[in-house]
Design goal:
The complex is a heterodimer of chains A (about 425) and B (about 400). With about 425 residues, chain A is of the alpha+beta class. Helices cover about 50% and strands about 15% of the residues of chain A. In chain A, α2 packs antiparallel against α11 (about 305-335) and α12 packs across α16. Chain B has helices spanning about 5-10, 15-45, 70-85, 130-135, 170-175, 240-255, 270-280, 280-315, 315-325, 330-365, 375-400, and strands at about 55-65, 90-95, 105-110, 120-125, 140, 150-155, 165, 185, 195-200, 220-225, 230-235, 260, 270. Chain B is elongated.
């Protein structure tokens, strides 16, 4: 039965090639525009750590006060004094501070020129907290944090560049003029967006090259490669002045497993801020936030406005293409009122008319989907023209996208065909047999 | 032309009428907003930087190893001497940043040291007396830095300058009466800074939305910034020698000292490339919106052709009767064009409401300005013309239906 209707559909479509082509092109372009922009949108709006995004939190403390803070919101990072206080209190199961660093790696092996490497200064809890997959070795532990050990964990890509991908655990590497012992190498790990470091970065960078202990980085006075934001009149001369200034640059993360833990941490933050107010360090009431990964991505507006606008406009475009298709299908089906009359008179039920015409619409949808797929593939390879390179490289065609393209094309066309098909099924056989 | 019979006929084709009107309405709403986005983005990316972009390039040199501030400062001075000697180079200056870099150092500006709320915000460029000549910016009041005012400064050293050159935009913001030269301001410090020179125009380091309120507001400090990390060299090539100067500079710096990192891909960037990178998302949006507008107009036009042709085919007999009863070809043509105009008018009325609604939604959710009225009016005219153009061919075909058709039964 389906084969027969499919054959009828093809014949009918061949009868009006111009109309058919127009419908196929409309659907193809509509679906392709939506899919291209969707492929970018799904990459930038995805959950970077699905099984833990509700359990990882970043505490914020208002150390700037009314008039200096971000329109009532506390700064998006911590200053050194508050960051260290949170670590010392150790209220959470796991906790880490972090900041980005950019350092030269000195010549060695077969390289004669130094290269630049980007990494993070982190606590030992960083690795289990963020479920960093390890290829060789392991992260470091809290004791090594406290001992301010000269250890480092390399990223898989960086290990490949430096050591040809071999197990480099136990070897030494000179980063920024200091030697570190390699204790681990991660597997490829690049959560997108990079939720843990959004202070002064878009969240869409290449994988990090290395991770070294926060405590060691401070000892070596390694500067942040990220944002450093200060308020008011500042008098800084030297590293220690800076550490004790109101400049924020450290991102804190804690793991809290239950609602109880979250409530406890929140009241700890309130109490800490209240203490600071009592001691005269803050001249304002406690103003703290505790956002989890999902809330943090939302608050930091990680999804670029361009991605949102282009997806919206593309979906609007698809809707117009569908309205267009409804009109054209209506014209096409109603032109065949005579044929429908004859089929009905010869015993075809309304149901069979429905099937025949929906099948025809689905065929148009499928052709549109195939065109859409070609256009999507072409569009994604040219997406670098439309988005910033670090965002464009996230867009890719996979099976899900292929299935979605075809599925959306067929489903949308069939939905668009409901009204024209209903009109076709309403044709009165007697009336048409009489006049023709 | 009587509207009554057209309305009567449309009442018999409700679905088709509604579909065309709806399509015109949606197309108007999208095209109108898309054109406005294109206009905004193009206006943004064609803002002048105020510098001699055609001959400028920037070198990013990172140090390898753990150098002291003194070592860094003497390296910067020898690098500059080497660069300025190159045959293709007209001048060179050190800097912490450059226009359109995408971010960097900016300070809040206060008029008194006690002031809590900022007066405004300015980009900070640290360089020497060669910067004005290198960038090719015009000094419109006061003087350039003297060589003896230039001092080295570490990242956290308390060595704020007591003089600065500011842009006209910043000078006018601080002293709207035009008396800025010789006056002072405070840059997050208890010590005042005196304005010794005013330059005509210089773009900020970033062109993001947040900095729109502070556009073109910069200050130049007579300081060489020495950091563990590295430095930028802004270099102006002699006219027509940009490519050669870029090659020579990289070689000259490596020859100066190999223990540095100049990224093979983006360590040396021409200003054309910097501009391209700074505005890539603006350009991308404009391209995408342009493609969507063009395809949308074609599809809507083709849809109108399709439906109008269908109506003409359906009404051949009625057309024949009208012709037999004395209607001229002109009357038939006018009838179908008027019908299209009526549907189009209904469509654009709904479309205007939709366009404004979409614009208001975008203002609330994704930083967007208010849609100017003339955009809506221009789009209305464009869509009505598109409708008339699309209906013309089927209407002409209708006008050629022979009166004899009336006498046939089929």
């Amino acid at each position: 039965m389906f084969a027969y209707y499919f054959d009828l559909a093809l014949r009918s479509l061949k009868r009006n090639p111009a109309l058919t082509t127009l419908m196929v092109i409309a659907i193809g372009f509509g679906v392709a525009a939506s899919m291209i922009t969707y492929s970018v949108f799904r990459a930038v709006s995805g959950d970077p750590i699905p099984d833990k995004s509700a359990r990882l939190f970043t505490p914020q403390i208002d150390s700037w006060g009314p008039g200096q803070n971000l329109q009532g919101e506390p700064p998006s990072a911590l200053n050194y004094v508050d960051a260290m206080a949170l670590m010392r209190a150790h209220i959470a199961k796991r906790q880490t501070l972090l900041y980005p660093v950019s350092l030269p790696v000195l010549p060695g092996g077969n390289r004669s020129l130094p290269v630049k490497a980007n990494g993070y200064a982190v606590g030992g809890d960083f690795f289990p907290m963020f479920e960093v997959p390890l290829l060789y070795g392991s992260g470091w532990n809290v004791a090594q944090d406290e001992a301010r050990a000269s250890v480092v964990v390399l990223g898989e890509e960086f290990n490949r560049k430096q050591f040809g991908g071999a197990n480099s655990v136990g070897r030494e590497i000179n980063i920024g003029g200091h030697d570190y012992r390699i204790v681990g190498v991660t597997r490829h790990w690049n959560p997108v967006p990079r939720f843990y470091e959004l202070f002064g970065s878009s969240g869409f960078e290449q994988p990090a090259d290395f991770y070294l202990p926060f405590t060691r980085a401070l000892d070596l006075r390694i500067d942040t490669a990220g944002n450093n934001s200060c308020r008011g009149t500042i008098k800084i001369s030297g590293w220690d002045d800076w550490l004790h200034s109101n400049c924020v640059w450290i991102e804190p993360w804690v793991e809290l497993d239950s609602a109880n833990d979250v409530a406890r941490y929140r009241s700890f933050l309130e109490a800490y801020s209240a203490d600071q107010q009592r001691s005269g360090r803050f001249a304002w009431a406690p103003n703290v936030r505790l956002r989890n990964v999902t809330q943090w991505l939302e608050y930091m507006k990680v999804v670029p406005p361009e991605s949102r606008i282009s997806l919206l406009v593309s979906v609007g475009f698809l809707v117009i293409c569908l309205v267009n298709t409804v009109g054209l299908l209506l014209a096409k089906f109603m032109r065949r009122a005579g044929e429908i009359g004859v089929r009905r008179a010869l015993g075809a039920s309304r149901r069979e008319i429905y099937l025949q015409f929906l099948m025809e619409a689905a065929t148009v949808g499928l052709l549109g989907g195939v065109l859409g797929l070609l256009l999507t593939a072409a569009g994604i390879s040219g997406v670098g023209l439309l988005f910033r390179p670090e965002i464009a490289r996230l867009a890719h065609v996979d099976l899900v996208l292929v299935a979605m393209t075809l599925g959306v094309a067929v489903a949308a066309t069939v939905v668009a065909a409901f009204y024209p098909t209903w009109r076709a099924a309403q044709v009165q056989p007697a009336w048409h047999l009489k006049t023709n | 032309m009587h509207v009554q019979p057209i309305l009567a006929a449309l009442r018999r084709h409700k679905a088709g009428t509604v579909l065309i009107a709806l399509q015109i309405a949606l197309t108007l709403a999208i095209v109108c907003n898309a054109l406005f986005i294109i206009h905004q983005r193009l206006a943004h990316l064609s803002e002048p930087t105020g510098i001699d972009e055609a001959n400028l390039f920037v070198i990013e040199s990172q140090w390898a190893g753990d150098l002291s501030n003194q070592q860094v400062d003497s390296q910067i001075q020898s690098d500059l001497a080497a660069l300025r000697q190159l045959p293709g180079v007209s001048d060179a200056a050190p800097s912490n940043s450059y226009p359109l870099r995408g971010g960097g150092w900016d300070d809040f500006i206060m008029m008194t040291p006690e002031q809590k709320e900022k007066t405004t915000d300015a980009s900070v460029y640290l360089s020497d007396e060669h910067l004005l000549d290198t960038l090719g910016v015009k000094l419109i009041a006061g003087r350039n830095f003297r060589p003896d005012e230039i001092e080295p400064m570490g990242v956290r050293e308390d060595k704020m300058p007591s003089v600065a050159i500011v842009t006209k935009a910043l000078a006018d913001k601080l002293y709207p009466d035009g008396s800025a030269l010789g006056k002072t301001f405070y840059s997050m410090s208890p010590r005042p800074i005196t304005i010794i020179g005013i330059i005509e125009r210089l773009q900020r380091q970033e062109v993001d939305t947040w900095s729109r309120d502070y556009v073109y507001q910069d200050m130049l400090w007579p300081r060489r910034l020495d950091t563990q990390w590295g430095t930028y060299y802004i270099v102006r090539a002699k006219p027509g020698q940009l490519a050669a100067a870029m090659r020579e500079s990289r070689k000259a710096l490596i020859a100066q000292n190999r223990m540095r990192i100049i990224d093979p891909d983006d360590g040396v960037l021409s200003f054309a490339e910097i501009r391209h990178r700074a505005y890539d998302s603006d350009r991308g949006m404009a391209i995408l919106m342009g493609i969507i507008c063009a395809v949308l107009l074609v599809i809507t036009g083709a849809g109108i052709v399709g439906l109008t042709s269908f109506w003409v085919g359906q009404r051949r007999k009625q057309i024949g009767i009208r012709r037999a009863l004395g209607a001229t070809r002109h009357d038939i043509l006018g009838y179908f064009l008027a019908e299209n105009l009526l549907i189009g008018l209904a469509g654009v009325l709904i479309g205007i409401v939709l366009a404004v609604a979409i614009n208001l939604w975008m203002i609330m959710h994704v930083e967007m300005a208010r849609l100017p009225l003339w955009y809506v009016l221009a789009s209305v005219v464009a869509l009505l013309l598109l409708g008339q153009g699309a209906a013309l061919a089927p209407a002409l075909r209708a006008s050629r239906v022979s009166p004899v058709v009336a006498t046939r039964t089929v």
